[in-house]
């Protein structure tokens, strides 16, 4: 299958090949992606995640997450309620927001799979180092955007594609759980598609804002 998993366009082209996988690029939204047949099984994917040992007590991990935390926190109203989507085996970003007064829910398909967290609406939703793992990023990001209150924020952190030459040398593609690779153009397309405004405060952070004037929603 050569359908783009972000925008569902069938207009995709060869982008890169290494010893393990092929990579195609969407000619509409610019996403680079691994074909479905070359993705890991759910069991193999989880086995890799189980080796992660990030925790709230890890100062280095907190510094890493601060690239998303800092620009988002300064834009939030006091007491804004959030969801950390794809929190992983050692939720930390949610702890950082709770420490500064933001009630948090968490969801992770492997480690916090209770789906009631996905039935509510939030003032902000974070997904740190998540979108590159998504088999269907378009469907998932549409769902998350739909869970935002007006004036809400969808905050994503993922490293971005910059060029073919850099991609061929990129450590990011060596992780077999990474299957969807966004460029700046991909985020521009996504913001337009979701009718959100886009801010790129860092090389690996994208903040998408839902206008407060798009109508009202209730829990």
From TrEMBL:
**Biological processes, Gene Ontology terms:** methylation
Highest taxon of source: Bacteria
Q: Any keyword Transferase? A: yes
Q: Does the keyword Transferase apply?
A: yes
The UniProt transmembrane annotation reads none
> Gene3D superfamilies in the record, alphabetically?
Vaccinia Virus protein VP39
Q: Which GO terms describe its molecular function?
A: methyltransferase activity
**Which InterPro entries does the entry link to?**
SAM-dependent_MTases_sf (IPR029063)
Keywords of the record: Methyltransferase, Transferase
Q: What is this protein called?
A: Methyltransferase domain-containing protein
The species is Halomonas korlensis
